[in-house]
Specification:
Helix content of chain A: 25-40%
Number of domains of chain A: 2
CATH superfamily of the largest domain in chain A: Winged helix-like DNA-binding domain superfamily/Winged helix DNA-binding domain
Number of strands of chain A: 7
CATH class of the largest domain in chain A: Mainly Alpha
Radius of gyration of chain A: 17 Å
Order of helices and strands of chain A: HHEHHEEEEHEE
Number of helices of chain A: 5
Structural class of chain A: alpha+beta
Oligomer: homodimer
DNA sequence: TTTACTGCAAATCTTTTGCATCAAC
DNA sequence: GTTGATGCAAAAGATTTGCAGTAAA
């Protein structure tokens, strides 16, 4: 199995410049346990490097998306969250009581995928699926 | 089976006023085949009644949501869509190629719901679920 | 040296809100 | 006549963009 090269190497391999801003954005994304939003990335960086701009964060996220290095998830919060594509695709259970985000394993939805293909001729992209509801504590 | 009374009657029964703006908003929602967004409702009304304001649309949608008369769906378009609750809950397949919205029947996801309950102690609210992907033509 | 990348400011887009007026009841 | 609903204008929050200067290669 090939060791996944890190995002910075992939950027420079493709001819994109490795600026300090990009490196900080990459590490913020990579170090985040949960999925991180643009302004969380920004806040984390501004703390150490006060004159980065949030538009740089958005432009970098746009680039990483285009290159398939990060994955975007819309949890219906009115903002979008990102996480590294190499960490694999998750499905998300978002508790509307306490806000907990539970990651779901990929195979669980395989049968749903098959059903949709078979009965609706629809090829779902389940990589960014988010399911809202309530966890045990909150229900 | 009780005949579902229309949204206007329910509003006035609950002591809310039936203004012409509200009636036009209600009929826009009710006549829309697909799920309709706030600015689509607004555009439709302004055509005939040029001095309605979009904030009235938002305030009415907020009210209808609170009363359970309309249902909100976030298809990840950066805006929210609405449809009458009496038309039942749908699950949505959104084709990212051609934009088609395919409605899915409720029972289809029953087994998913059961699995999430059993294995994750999570009670999903599947009423507003949207699944992105590609239809036969576009895949 | 070249030109991709950045910071800044301003624009966009959706949704929300304060406030004085207006109209449904 | 009351008070809830509206229009207007402005604010808010996320994201995008134009532009001139800067720095990675």
């Amino acid at each position: 199995m090939e060791q996944p090269r890190d995002m910075a190497s992939k950027l420079s391999e493709q001819g994109y410049r490795l600026t300090p801003q990009r490196l900080m954005i990459l590490s913020a994304i990579d170090n985040s346990d949960n999925h991180i939003s643009a302004d969380e990335i920004y806040a984390q960086i501004v703390a150490k490097y006060p004159n980065v701009n949030i538009s740089t964060v958005y432009r970098t996220l746009e680039l990483l998306k285009r290159l398939g290095l990060v994955t975007e998830t819309d949890l219906g919060e009115g903002r979008v969250r990102y996480h590294p594509a190499v960490k694999g695709h998750h499905h998300h259970l978002l508790c509307q009581g306490c806000g907990a985000i539970i990651d779901l394993d990929e195979p669980l939805l395989a049968s749903l995928k098959n059903t949709l293909l078979r009965e609706y001729n629809f090829l779902p992209d389940l990589r960014h699926l988010a399911i809202l509801g309530r966890c045990l504590k909150c229900s």
